[in-house]
Amino acid sequence: MRVLAIVPAYNEEESLQSTVEELMASCPDVDILVINDGSRDATGAICDREGYNHLDMPINCGLTSGFQAGMKYALRHGYDAAVQFDADGQHRPEYIAEMARAMEGQGADIVIASRFLEGERGHSLRHIGNSLISRLIRATTGASITDPTSGMRMFRRSTFKAFAGGMDMGPEPDAVALLVRKGGARVVEVPASMRERQAGESYLSPAKAVTYMGRTCLNILFFQWFR
Protein backbone atom coordinates (compact mmCIF):
# COMPACT_ATOMS: atom_id res chain seq x y z
CA MET A 1 0.00 0.00 0.00
CA ARG A 2 1.43 3.38 -1.04
CA VAL A 3 1.10 5.83 1.84
CA LEU A 4 1.67 9.58 1.78
CA ALA A 5 2.34 11.46 5.01
CA ILE A 6 0.88 14.97 4.75
CA VAL A 7 2.74 17.29 7.13
CA PRO A 8 1.10 20.74 7.44
CA ALA A 9 3.63 23.26 8.73
CA TYR A 10 3.09 26.87 9.71
CA ASN A 11 6.09 28.56 11.35
CA GLU A 12 7.57 25.23 12.48
CA GLU A 13 11.26 26.00 11.89
CA GLU A 14 12.24 24.72 15.36
CA SER A 15 10.73 21.25 15.00
CA LEU A 16 10.24 20.54 11.28
CA GLN A 17 13.62 19.01 10.49
CA SER A 18 13.68 16.67 13.48
CA THR A 19 10.08 15.63 12.77
CA VAL A 20 10.73 14.83 9.11
CA GLU A 21 14.03 13.06 9.82
CA GLU A 22 12.39 10.87 12.47
CA LEU A 23 9.54 10.12 10.08
CA MET A 24 11.95 9.14 7.28
CA ALA A 25 14.01 6.95 9.61
CA SER A 26 11.00 5.15 11.09
CA CYS A 27 8.95 4.83 7.90
CA PRO A 28 11.32 4.61 4.90
CA ASP A 29 8.52 3.28 2.66
CA VAL A 30 6.21 6.22 3.39
CA ASP A 31 6.42 9.25 1.11
CA ILE A 32 6.33 12.68 2.72
CA LEU A 33 4.74 15.93 1.59
CA VAL A 34 5.31 19.04 3.70
CA ILE A 35 2.69 21.76 3.27
CA ASN A 36 4.46 25.04 4.01
CA ASP A 37 1.39 27.09 4.84
CA GLY A 38 2.67 30.59 4.14
CA SER A 39 5.18 30.45 6.99
CA ARG A 40 6.90 33.68 7.98
CA ASP A 41 9.90 31.93 9.51
CA ALA A 42 12.51 29.60 7.96
CA THR A 43 10.12 26.66 7.39
CA GLY A 44 10.23 27.06 3.61
CA ALA A 45 14.00 27.58 3.59
CA ILE A 46 14.50 24.36 5.56
CA CYS A 47 12.38 22.46 3.03
CA ASP A 48 14.48 23.85 0.19
CA ARG A 49 17.80 23.26 1.94
CA GLU A 50 17.02 19.68 2.95
CA GLY A 51 15.32 18.79 -0.33
CA TYR A 52 12.00 17.86 1.25
CA ASN A 53 9.09 17.23 -1.07
CA HIS A 54 6.87 20.20 -0.29
CA LEU A 55 4.19 22.59 -1.46
CA ASP A 56 4.41 26.30 -0.67
CA MET A 57 1.05 27.93 -0.07
CA PRO A 58 1.10 31.59 -1.25
CA ILE A 59 -0.27 32.85 2.10
CA ASN A 60 -1.29 31.30 5.40
CA CYS A 61 -4.44 29.49 4.27
CA GLY A 62 -5.07 27.43 7.40
CA LEU A 63 -5.10 23.71 8.15
CA THR A 64 -8.16 22.91 6.05
CA SER A 65 -6.78 24.38 2.82
CA GLY A 66 -3.32 22.97 3.44
CA PHE A 67 -4.66 19.47 4.04
CA GLN A 68 -6.91 19.73 0.98
CA ALA A 69 -3.85 20.59 -1.12
CA GLY A 70 -2.14 17.50 0.25
CA MET A 71 -5.15 15.34 -0.56
CA LYS A 72 -5.25 16.66 -4.12
CA TYR A 73 -1.58 15.71 -4.45
CA ALA A 74 -2.28 12.22 -3.05
CA LEU A 75 -5.22 11.75 -5.43
CA ARG A 76 -3.28 12.87 -8.50
CA HIS A 77 -0.24 10.76 -7.68
CA GLY A 78 -2.10 7.52 -7.09
CA TYR A 79 -1.58 6.95 -3.37
CA ASP A 80 -3.62 4.29 -1.61
CA ALA A 81 -3.71 6.10 1.74
CA ALA A 82 -2.73 9.41 3.29
CA VAL A 83 -1.86 10.03 6.92
CA GLN A 84 -2.17 13.39 8.65
CA PHE A 85 1.04 14.03 10.60
CA ASP A 86 1.84 17.09 12.70
CA ALA A 87 5.08 19.01 12.16
CA ASP A 88 5.50 19.88 15.84
CA GLY A 89 6.78 16.48 16.99
CA GLN A 90 3.66 15.37 18.87
CA HIS A 91 2.89 12.42 16.60
CA ARG A 92 4.93 9.22 16.75
CA PRO A 93 5.78 7.74 13.33
CA GLU A 94 6.03 4.17 14.61
CA TYR A 95 2.22 3.99 14.66
CA ILE A 96 1.90 4.54 10.91
CA ALA A 97 2.70 0.92 10.04
CA GLU A 98 0.12 -0.30 12.58
CA MET A 99 -2.46 2.08 11.14
CA ALA A 100 -1.78 0.78 7.63
CA ARG A 101 -2.17 -2.82 8.83
CA ALA A 102 -5.49 -1.93 10.44
CA MET A 103 -6.65 -0.31 7.22
CA GLU A 104 -5.75 -3.34 5.12
CA GLY A 105 -6.65 -6.06 7.59
CA GLN A 106 -9.92 -4.62 8.93
CA GLY A 107 -11.18 -2.90 5.80
CA ALA A 108 -11.10 0.54 7.38
CA ASP A 109 -11.61 3.74 5.43
CA ILE A 110 -10.30 5.88 8.30
CA VAL A 111 -7.84 4.81 10.98
CA ILE A 112 -7.34 7.02 14.03
CA ALA A 113 -4.41 6.84 16.46
CA SER A 114 -6.37 7.00 19.71
CA ARG A 115 -4.99 8.25 23.01
CA PHE A 116 -8.05 6.92 24.86
CA LEU A 117 -8.76 3.53 23.31
CA GLU A 118 -7.45 1.74 26.38
CA GLY A 119 -9.62 3.78 28.71
CA GLU A 120 -7.30 6.56 29.90
CA ARG A 121 -9.08 9.90 30.18
CA GLY A 122 -8.43 13.06 32.13
CA HIS A 123 -10.62 15.82 33.47
CA SER A 124 -9.17 18.82 31.64
CA LEU A 125 -11.28 20.98 29.36
CA ARG A 126 -9.68 19.26 26.36
CA HIS A 127 -10.63 15.80 27.61
CA ILE A 128 -14.17 16.89 28.43
CA GLY A 129 -14.56 18.39 24.96
CA ASN A 130 -13.22 15.23 23.33
CA SER A 131 -15.70 13.12 25.29
CA LEU A 132 -18.59 15.39 24.27
CA ILE A 133 -17.63 15.24 20.60
CA SER A 134 -17.33 11.44 20.84
CA ARG A 135 -20.87 11.21 22.24
CA LEU A 136 -22.28 13.50 19.54
CA ILE A 137 -20.68 11.42 16.79
CA ARG A 138 -22.14 8.25 18.27
CA ALA A 139 -25.58 9.87 18.55
CA THR A 140 -25.61 11.15 14.95
CA THR A 141 -23.77 8.35 13.13
CA GLY A 142 -23.78 5.30 15.39
CA ALA A 143 -19.98 5.11 15.23
CA SER A 144 -18.01 4.71 18.46
CA ILE A 145 -14.82 6.79 18.30
CA THR A 146 -12.88 7.22 21.53
CA ASP A 147 -10.54 9.96 20.27
CA PRO A 148 -12.21 12.00 17.52
CA THR A 149 -9.92 14.99 18.14
CA SER A 150 -6.73 13.03 17.53
CA GLY A 151 -4.80 14.76 14.77
CA MET A 152 -3.14 11.56 13.57
CA ARG A 153 -5.55 10.01 11.11
CA MET A 154 -5.08 7.80 8.05
CA PHE A 155 -7.53 8.03 5.16
CA ARG A 156 -8.13 5.48 2.40
CA ARG A 157 -8.08 6.62 -1.22
CA SER A 158 -11.87 6.33 -1.40
CA THR A 159 -12.10 9.41 0.85
CA PHE A 160 -9.63 11.59 -1.07
CA LYS A 161 -12.16 13.16 -3.43
CA ALA A 162 -14.33 14.39 -0.57
CA PHE A 163 -11.39 16.36 0.84
CA ALA A 164 -9.87 17.38 -2.49
CA GLY A 165 -13.15 18.73 -3.87
CA GLY A 166 -15.06 19.91 -0.80
CA MET A 167 -14.53 23.50 0.28
CA ASP A 168 -15.66 22.74 3.86
CA MET A 169 -13.88 19.40 4.31
CA GLY A 170 -10.97 19.71 6.70
CA PRO A 171 -9.20 17.07 8.79
CA GLU A 172 -11.55 17.54 11.73
CA PRO A 173 -14.02 15.38 13.72
CA ASP A 174 -17.05 16.80 11.92
CA ALA A 175 -15.62 15.74 8.55
CA VAL A 176 -15.03 12.24 9.91
CA ALA A 177 -18.64 12.16 11.14
CA LEU A 178 -19.87 13.31 7.74
CA LEU A 179 -17.89 10.60 5.94
CA VAL A 180 -19.35 7.98 8.27
CA ARG A 181 -22.94 9.18 7.99
CA LYS A 182 -23.12 10.03 4.28
CA GLY A 183 -20.32 7.95 2.83
CA GLY A 184 -20.59 4.85 4.98
CA ALA A 185 -16.94 5.11 5.97
CA ARG A 186 -15.68 2.51 8.42
CA VAL A 187 -13.54 3.89 11.25
CA VAL A 188 -11.00 1.81 13.17
CA GLU A 189 -8.82 3.04 16.03
CA VAL A 190 -5.40 1.83 17.17
CA PRO A 191 -3.99 2.60 20.64
CA ALA A 192 -1.38 5.34 20.68
CA SER A 193 0.36 7.83 22.91
CA MET A 194 1.30 11.36 21.91
CA ARG A 195 4.15 13.59 22.97
CA GLU A 196 3.98 17.21 23.99
CA ARG A 197 4.70 19.78 21.30
CA GLN A 198 8.49 19.68 20.87
CA ALA A 199 8.94 23.36 19.96
CA GLY A 200 7.01 26.51 19.11
CA GLU A 201 3.53 27.42 20.27
CA SER A 202 0.15 25.93 19.45
CA TYR A 203 -2.28 28.14 17.57
CA LEU A 204 -5.01 26.86 19.90
CA SER A 205 -5.09 29.26 22.83
CA PRO A 206 -7.62 28.41 25.59
CA ALA A 207 -10.13 30.82 24.02
CA LYS A 208 -9.60 29.37 20.55
CA ALA A 209 -9.88 25.85 21.93
CA VAL A 210 -13.30 26.62 23.40
CA THR A 211 -14.39 28.16 20.08
CA TYR A 212 -13.09 25.11 18.21
CA MET A 213 -15.00 22.72 20.45
CA GLY A 214 -18.20 24.74 20.17
CA ARG A 215 -17.99 24.97 16.40
CA THR A 216 -17.21 21.28 16.03
CA CYS A 217 -20.14 20.28 18.23
CA LEU A 218 -22.52 22.51 16.26
CA ASN A 219 -21.27 21.09 12.95
CA ILE A 220 -21.82 17.53 14.14
CA LEU A 221 -25.15 18.10 15.81
CA PHE A 222 -26.80 20.46 13.32
CA PHE A 223 -24.90 21.60 10.24
CA GLN A 224 -23.71 18.24 8.91
CA TRP A 225 -27.30 17.48 7.85
CA PHE A 226 -27.10 20.30 5.27
CA ARG A 227 -23.63 19.58 3.90
How would you portray this structure in words?
The protein has a single domain, classed as Spore Coat Polysaccharide Biosynthesis Protein SpsA, Chain A (Alpha-Beta Complex), CATH 3.90.550. It has helices at 16-26, 43-50, 63-76, 95-106, 125-141, 160-165, 173-183, 206-221; strands at 3-9, 31-36, 54-56, 81-84, 110-114, 153-156, 187-191. The model has no long low-confidence stretch (mean pLDDT 91). By secondary structure, it is an alpha/beta fold. 42% of the residues lie in helices and 15% in strands. A seven-stranded mixed beta sheet has the order 3-2-1-4-6-5-7, with helices on both faces.
Q: Fill in the CATH topology.
A: Spore Coat Polysaccharide Biosynthesis Protein SpsA, Chain A
Average of pLDDT: 91
C-alpha geometry: globular
CATH classification, class level: Alpha Beta
Share of β-strand residues: 5-15%
InterPro entries: Glyco_trans_2-like (IPR001173), Glycosyltransferase_2 (IPR050256), Nucleotide-diphossugar_trans (IPR029044)
Keywords: Transferase
Family: Belongs to the glycosyltransferase 2 family.
Domain Glycosyltransferase 2-like: 6-161
